[in-house]
Amino acid sequence: MDDNKQVKVKNRVNSLVVYVVPDMGNLKREFQGQEEKILTFEELRKLSYTPGGDVILKDYLVIKDKEVLEALGLNVEPEYFYTKEDIIKLLKEGSLDEFLDCLDFAPDGVIDLVKEYAVTMPLNDVEKRQAILDKTGFDVNIAIELQEEQLKGIKENATQRRAAVPSKAD
After folding, report:
1. At 2, phi and psi to the nearest 5?
2. What pLDDT sits at residue 43?
3. Distance CA 82, CA 106 (A)
4. E strand map for 22-165
5. pTM, whole model, 2 decimals?
6. In angstroms, rounded to a whole number, what is the distance separating the alpha carbons of residues 53 and 147?
7. Residue boundaries of the structural domains of the chain
8. pLDDT in the model for residue 71
9. What does the alpha-carbon distance between residue 104 and residue 102 come to, in Å, rounded to a whole number?
10. How many Cβ atoms sit within 10 Å of the Cβ of residue 13?
11. Alpha-carbon dihedral of residues 68, 69, 72, 77, nearest 10 degrees?
């Protein structure tokens, strides 16, 4: 494959992804959450040779070009291509079997988003909450309770005025 081929790459997660490619003069690349960039195949190839580079490419970034994935030696499952919308739809409408397949075969970045959206939506399906706990050890019930307590604490501790403030119109 041509090293100059332009490849669209997206950060699948909502957090920062950073890597350094020593073979390209210590090139440092930062992706903000959900950010998309155009990179060369050469950069991706050299990233795949660095320690942990294949994990970054497989679990946290998304390359939708199957030819590029094949050239990089990345054998991915269909869940690799899941978008934020796909994950939310799976949480809301997907069958339990589809959801279990996702938990079994999806890359870590997708699993991170499943857990995040299960809490922020929140996920109302008890079987899916249990499946997340069984497969990942992450307890959605406790996370939702902690989130609710934190929001309650913020509201209770919100700074309020103790004295009347004169209007500037007076």
Report:
1. -65, 125
2. 97
3. 8
4. 27-31, 36-40, 61-63
5. 0.81
6. 33
7. 6-76, 80-156
8. 96
9. 5
10. 22
11. -170
Taking 50 as the pLDDT cut, the residues of the chain under it are none
Name, in order, each residue with C-beta under 8 angstroms of 110's C-beta and a sequence gap of 6 or more.
12, 79, 80, 82, 87, 102
Q: What pLDDT shows up at residue 168?
A: 75
> What amino acid occupies position 69?
L
Q: What is the dihedral of CA 10, 66, 100, 34, to 10 degrees?
A: 0
Q: Is 107 in contact with 79 (CB distance < 8 Å)?
A: yes
**Which of 54, 62, 57 minimizes the C-alpha distance to 87?**
62
CA distances from 102 to 5, 9, 23, 52, 90 (A): 31, 22, 35, 23, 9
Alpha helices in 20-95 (DSSP H): 41-49, 53-55, 66-71, 84-93
- Is residue 122 reached through a cis peptide bond, with omega within 30 degrees of 0 on the bond before it? yes
Which residues have a Cβ under 8 Å from the Cβ of 46 and sit 6 or more positions away?
21, 23, 24
Degrees, nearest 5: CA angle 119-36-15: 35
In terms of C-beta density within 10 A (0-12 exposed, 13-18 middle, 19 or more buried), how is residue 72 classed? buried
Residue 158 confidence (pLDDT) = 67
Q: Do 31 and 17 contact (CB within 8 A), yes or no?
A: yes
